[in-house]
Amino acid sequence: MPFWNYAKEDIMVLTDEPYNLKYMPTRRNILSALRWLVKDAQPGDCLFFHYSRHGGRIVDLDGRRVDGHRVDGFEKVDWERAGEIVSEDLYDVMVKPLPAGCCLNALFDSCYSGSVLDLPYIYQPSDHLKQHAANSRALTKYPQAHVVLFASCSDFQGSGGVIIRGGEFLGAMSSAFISSLTTNPTQTYLQVLASVQVILRRTQRQTPQLSRF
């Protein structure tokens, strides 16, 4: 990411191609990478996390509602054996350790990802903030870090993909996000949200969401 001045040694990519066990997106490796991302974070640091893979919904831990979230590891065998990564895991590992004055921007390009980080405020189409009732508990536990989530869809929607130049398959939200920032890299969060909404409407039936703390 030379455009945004991230040094190569400050970037970690997990992928199943080329085959490398250390960087395969298994549950263990994903959680390890998240810990690496936030380790030694300082006030003034700006972190970026991008997840483009499967997502799902599970019964919440209190057993009363089906609004929990999960992200899957490399393959079915891995998450069946090692377990799924749920919203509480993501919060505890990626958000809770952040110090005041640190900024985390997260992009989740996966099904049912609308409130995957349990952030308490979600932007409505009118650009007004709405407190997310289910996530209001976050107000009592969040650090003073600035956390922003771009989700590819609501908690009740699937997330599509597109074929880009060269025949490569890419998540539709990831493609729209890249296109938006490539065209105009100095947008506000709301401008990026509006831009990707326009792009996705051309081919997809999903509503990207922006939430923050």
Strand content: 15-25%
Give the mean pLDDT: 81
> Which structural class is indicated by helix and strand composition?
alpha+beta
Spatial sequence of strands, sheet with the most strands: 1-5-8-11-6-7
- Element order: H for helix, E for strand: HEEEHEHEEEEEEHHE
Q: How much helix is in the residues?
A: 10-25%
Task: Tell me the distance between the termini.
Answer: 25 Å
E-strand count? 11
| Number of H- or I-type helical stretches | 5
Shape: globular
So what's the oligomer here? single chain
- List unreliable stretches of 5+ residues: 63-68, 72-77
Sheet with most strands:
6 strands, mixed
Radius of gyration: 17 Å
Protein name: Peptidase C14, caspase domain-containing protein
GO molecular function, one term: cysteine-type endopeptidase activity
Organism: Suillus plorans
Domain Peptidase C14 caspase: 22-212
Could you please describe the fold and organization of this structure?
With 213 residues, this protein is of the alpha+beta class. The chain is 25% helix and 22% strand. It contains 5 helices and 11 strands; from the N terminus they run H-E-E-E-H-E-H-E-E-E-E-E-E-H-H-E. Strand 6 and strand 7 form a beta hairpin. Helix 1 packs parallel to helix 3 and helix 4 crosses helix 5. The longest helix has 13 residues. The two termini are 25 Å apart. About 6% of the residues have low confidence. This is Peptidase C14, caspase domain-containing protein. One of its GO terms (biological process) is proteolysis. InterPro entries: Metacaspase, Pept_C14_caspase.
